[in-house]
Write a structure and sequence with these properties.
heterodimer; A: alpha/beta; Amidase signature (AS) enzymes; 11-stranded mixed beta sheet; 36% helix; globular; B: mainly alpha; flat
């Protein structure tokens, strides 16, 4: 039998049901893999005792014939989700040893459904970054390297620890969050699947807030089926989040019919961006051919305000962040710095606690919201955001979903873009539109580039139509037959 | 619109973040780069366009105005940096 850590989440459920192995054996294999992969720096907290206890409880449930939907599945959690009794930091110094006395809704639903907790995953500080280089715990290494080259590459961000852990077979799935591409970009950089659901699909309660009108949690897995399984447990209405959608959660696996005949797929002409490497364009063409061959109808569409998406995002997101992060003042929780006066204590606490990228975004956000600039920047951006959302509404009169690249490049080297904020921001050029419009979007691995690195395609759907997005992603996954995996160079 | 070191110092004060003197110039440069790039939005015609304030059109739900939680003082204080007798503390603000 192949290693238990190589199984997909779906196959692990089958194996557990058939008693081929126990949840304890599955958990032990993953706990060992995590312990042997510290080089990657994907985990910021490991919880092996909790994992084994969860697994034993799971085995007991299964023995009683009471197995739950994700019973015995080892998962890891982005350290942006509050976990009761387990340190939660958002990869920031300012939270210190903050240990929540409550559990986020999304993670509580995973545990409700029997999942096993392996630990907390590294990320860009407060989920602000595209390379995992802004973490207070140091950068995460991408398990993938260029062919014949040992240079360290970034795993993308902000869910870089999640992506690295799933790609390196340290867990069967991980939670991520996506504000401008933070699930899809790292998924593409590491050859895995990630879906940002429709805004409102998953509760934001108990997730450290970055930009509240854009943030959304989603699963990161090695297959589309696994993402469908995990999303079903994560999604659902939560009265504690007033923006959470009161809609029934479907069995997403039922959408994976393999049949996309007659579906109309839009190809946005504005996504052919100058300066993007030819291999990205070729992958996109390949995706179009796969869907055509599967019977889908391809149509060119126009999303005229695409080029305004990134500037809009970099007003809206910092503005919301500057407001959300005002709560980190050293009074009720977190790492306090002493000061003689109250303002001095605030300023020293926040000056020492926030890293450079977070500070930069709070300052931008404060500026665009400040008296005299609010109308010119923030209000203007909100109006352009309406136009961006309207572009999609118009497009969906013609098509059922949209196919686009996930990222403008493959994974880049550590340090390559960290000195230039604007170059880093451009990573989100294909992903940020779905956040601004609140739409579901999936990244699925579709091939390797000339240097042996994974590249992803993106499917964007109508609001609350994750099913069509997953169905199309599943067809691309089958056509791409992506079986490549990184060499196990990190294992000690 | 362009920011100088005084503007950076002012917004840092508004944001209650201590920024070392020596970094003001560098941050001003970075912010100007970002603001110049954002400036392209001014070219978009937004006449008659409503600002988008919510990602998905929905009305805010109302709940019954009832106490649903409480009696969790220990939980609330569990992460306080310097608690005293069930109170949060701050530097003296009244002379």
């Amino acid at each position: 039998m192949s290693a238990l850590t190589d199984l997909s989440l779906a196959d692990a459920l089958t194996g557990l049901a058939a008693k081929d192995f126990s949840a304890r054996e599955l958990a032990t294999a993953h706990v060992e893999a995590v312990a042997a992969a510290s080089t990657l720096n994907a985990f910021v907290v490991e919880t092996p005792e909790r994992a084994l206890a969860d697994a034993e409880a799971s085995d007991a449930r299964r023995a009683r014939g009471e197995a739950l939907p994700l019973d015995g599945i080892p998962l890891a959690i982005k350290d942006l989700f509050c976990t009761k009794g387990i340190r939660t930091t958002a990869a920031s110094r300012i939270l210190g040893d903050f240990t929540p006395t409550y559990e986020s809704t999304v993670t509580s639903q995973l545990w409700r459904d029997g999942a096993v907790m392996l630990g907390k995953l590294n990320l860009d500080e407060f989920a602000m970054g595209s390379s995992n280089e802004t973490s207070a715990f140091g950068p995460v290494k991408n398990p993938w390297r260029r062919t014949g080259d040992t240079a360290v590459l970034v795993p993308g961000g902000s869910s870089g620890g999640s992506a690295a852990a799933v790609a390196a077979r340290l867990c069967l799935g991980a939670t991520g969050t996506d504000t401008g591409g933070s699930i899809r970009q790292p998924a593409a950089f590491t050859g895995i699947v990630g879906i940002k659901p429709t805004y409102g699909r998953c509760s934001r309660w108990g997730i450290v807030a970055f930009a509240s009108s854009l943030d959304q949690a989603g699963p990161m897995t090695r297959t589309v089926t696994d993402a469908a399984l995990m999303l079903r447990s994560m999604a659902g209405h939560d009265p504690k989040d007033s923006t959470s959608a009161n809609r029934a959660v479907p069995d997403y696996t039922k959408a994976l019919t393999g049949d996309v005949r007659g579906l109309k797929i839009g190809i946005p002409k504005e996504y052919r961006i100058e300066g993007v490497p030819a291999e990205i364009g070729r992958l996109w063409e390949q995706g179009i051919e796969w869907l055509k061959a599967a019977g889908a109808e391809i149509r060119e569409i126009s999303l005229p305000h695409t080029s305004q998406s990134l500037p809009t995002y970099y007003i809206v997101a910092p503005a919301e962040a500057s407001s959300n992060l005002a709560r980190y003042d050293g009074v009720r929780f977190g790492a306090r710095q002493p000061g003689r006066t109250l303002p001095e204590m605030y300023e020293k606490t926040r000056g020492a606690g926030f890293g450079r990228e977070v500070r930069r975004r709070i300052l931008i956000g404060t500026y665009v919201l400040s008296a005299g600039y609010y109308d010119a920047y923030y209000l203007k951006a909100q109006k352009v955001r309406s136009l961006i959302a309207r572009d999609f509404t118009e497009a969906y009169k013609e098509v059922d979903a949209i196919l686009a690249p996930a990222t403008p490049s493959a994974a880049f080297a550590a340090g390559e873009k960290s000195a230039d904020p604007l170059a880093m921001y451009l990573n989100d050029v294909f992903t940020v539109t779905a956040n601004l419009a609140g739409l579901p979007a999936l990244a699925v691995p579709a091939g390797l580039n000339s240097q042996g690195l994974p590249l992803g395609l993106q499917v964007i759907g109508r609001a609350f139509d994750e099913e069509t997005v997953l169905r199309i992603g599943h067809v691309i996954e089958k056509a791409a037959a992506f079986t490549a995996r990184p060499d196990n160079w990190w294992r000690v | 619109m362009s920011v100088d070191r005084n503007t950076v110092a002012r917004i840092a004060r508004l944001a209650r973040i201590e920024v070392p003197e020596g970094e003001l110039e560098h941050i001003a440069g970075e912010l100007n780069g970002i603001l110049a790039w954002i400036e392209q939005l001014q070219a978009v015609d937004t006449t008659g366009v409503e600002p988008m304030t919510s990602a998905v059109a929905s009305s805010l739900p109302l709940r019954a105005d009832l106490v649903s939680d409480g009696g969790i003082l220990d939980n609330l204080m569990a992460n306080a940096p310097d608690p005293h007798d069930g109170f949060f503390t701050v530097p003296k603000v009244v002379e």
